[in-house]
Amino acid sequence: MEDNELLNIRREKISDLKSAGVDLYPNDIKPQNTTKEILADFGSSDSETLAKLKSTFSVAGRLMAVRNFGKAAFIKIQDYKGQIQGYIGKNILSAEDYFVFKKLDIGDIIYISGKLFRTKTNELTIEAQKLILLSKSIRPLPEKWHGLTDIETRYRQRYLDLIANPKVKEIFHRRSRIIKLIRQFMDERDFLEVETPMMQSHAGGALARPFKTHHNALNMDFYLRIAPELYLKRLVTGGLERVYEINRNFRNEGISTFHNPEFTMLEFYQAYSTYEDLMSLTEDLFVFLAKNIFGKLKFNYQNTPIDLTPPWRRISVKEALVQLVGMEPACLKDQKKALAFARKAGCNVKPTDHLGKILMAVFDEGVEKKLVQPTFVTHYPVIISPLSRRSKNDEDIVDRFELYICGREIANAFSELNDPVDQKERFLQQLKEREEGSEEAHEMDEDYIRTLEYAMPPTAGEGIGIDRLVMLFTDAASIRDVILFPLLRTKQE
After folding, report:
1. pLDDT band at 492 (very low <50, low <70, confident <90, very high)
2. pTM
């Protein structure tokens, strides 16, 4: 503990309370009300109505403010639903309870019970007839706790952030509601919620660098999943034709305002569907969420107007490169010309890179940030889509889309590759890339090939980033604002 004056003062109070026989951490006190219930039921009642009430009311929560007037004081108590004012009178409380009150500090957890009344300023208040200390706060809240803005403190000590900033609580209440609405939407469309392994013997389902761990009893290496895709498609093959999972994924990648190595995804698969069907389903889902959250389809994100009214714009990768960054059509088919364009645009590309990878490097650098309104980008190169079905019209591209809003990818979907021969060839190509140094390329998954050999029905699947979705619907600038405990470098004490 820090040896400073504030801590010493609190230690002295603790010593005084213990000497008086006060239990600093009792566990048998149960409040009968919440602040929200009291304010909802009696917030509009006048003084005369309140005076006629025979009931007493009790709340428990954190002491957030004290205004002392000698033998009387007004306090603010904050529970998980809000705040309410309490009145402390020396002539009302017992001598023992008043002694406890005089030893309280901002941040303590307390219980009060009593009658309701209105002050001269017309504020609904509990006149405390009983006061109990429930948990003594040894450390003081940060200076200016009522406006805690230090980003480092807010993320590292989220509990202080939640105490100090009510809007932070609102974000996570909304996050919970969004996830409930997603489940409602999927359940109503006859999707089955399932759970798949988070430790996997093969890192598959996405192009990403995995986290690796070791199981001692089996003496085997495992990977934290980068995606549940291959397991969910095993279930589709087994006859669970509509499945979804709201899952935690782990990717050993950089951290930014919209990347966290541990993140939440909605991933779902629907048999006898195509990627085009999922575009319509995605529009329906976002419309459903917006209407339930905002009551409308137009809202602002970071001062930018967003309109979710369907149908959303649809544009292919190649069309986007030509229209939005000025790439000549000839570059789309010529690796050397594309390489020269990419280098001029400042992309990190190598002379040996496949044409498809070069085109996507230009896309990432120049196109993404221009996709502000909801946009489905379609027809990605095969080389970066090893699990997607080839287009009938062009074998170099796949039936796939990514959804962009405000310059960020929020969803990725495609018609699934269910040809085991083609899939094995794609895995072999991935193995070649691994041998050349790629840490994101897929490993060979023989059991998944075996699964496809039992015939998987034509299927479309999609993954939606829950964290980025919540950012959009809470007007959060950083992914860390919508994850309770984002990953941070260990602080050197």
Report:
1. low
2. 0.91
